[in-house]
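Final report, results section. Input specification for complex C-07:
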Amino acid sequence: MPDTSSPVRDDVVGHAEGPPEAPDIRLKPVLLTGLFIVVFVAVTLVALRVYRDTVITSPNTEPARTFAGPALQRAPQADLVRLLADQRRRLETYAWVDRAHGIARMPVAEAMRRLAERGAEAYAAPLQPERVPPLGSRGSAASPLPPPGTVAASPEEVR
Amino acid sequence: MTGRPFLLALLLLTACDDLSMSQQKRYDVYRRAALWADGAAARTPPDGTVQQGALADEAALADPPPVDAALLQRGRERYEAICTPCHGLTGHGDGMIVARGFPRPPSYHEDRLRAAPARTLVDVITNGYGTMYRYANRVEPRDRWAIAAYIRALQLSQGARVAELPGLAEKIPEERP
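Structure output:
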């Protein structure tokens, strides 16, 4: 008859039961390992930033270039309407062009009326004596009439 | 049955071997020609040849029409239709074509052209000048004079000397300081 008072054997070999497992793990190595990872990543990022700013000079680090847009008319009809409206305003209004020299502009209809009254003299050049421009000549810097846009339009222009 | 004669006619057409239509005895343009002394197929008009209507055009150009309201109105209508794209409505050489990058024509209001005779303006319309091509085949001789007269009106309109034009000073609004 077996001895029932001896300790229970739970395996075939009959090893004795071991000591109980430790109730907790050691926190210090785990924390040290995590801290090392954090410090390593931070140092690596800083080192990469320093390396990129000081060592790398490839075109990838150049600032993005901007290009001028193509000279296209997005609304050609509107541009033409605006241009003609501005020119027609200058064609049909009274205003000083160069007050210091006594030069003004007047509506072309008024100029046509005055010119028609001159008869045969209407073809005469306004600047006398008449001179045939030499062949190939072009432009003149001595004109007393400033080009449009250089003189501010008078807000009191009347028709 | 009509199909059989039609088929026969087609067969007869394919039998044609006459190349006289595709290979004609004539000179091609700009080819050599042994017929004339200079050896060129392209011929020039004989001396003294005059284009039809050229004499009338020449006479109309030589004799300026009298300037009146109707001629100036005609000149304005032709100018705004033909000249405005480059020269602009006021003649400053700022038309829409110039805004798009075409070479800027000179302004009518510079001294050189304010002193130019009207016949010079007509000659430029007739023969062209610089990048401006000739408008002889687009503008009738009388219309060229009408445009020249209207250019005079533009020069008077945009560069009027107030001291020489009575009644003008009163119509000019005062500028705000």
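The mean pLDDT of chain B is 90. The CA atoms of residues 124 and 151 of chain B lie 13 Å apart. This concludes the modelling results for the funded period.
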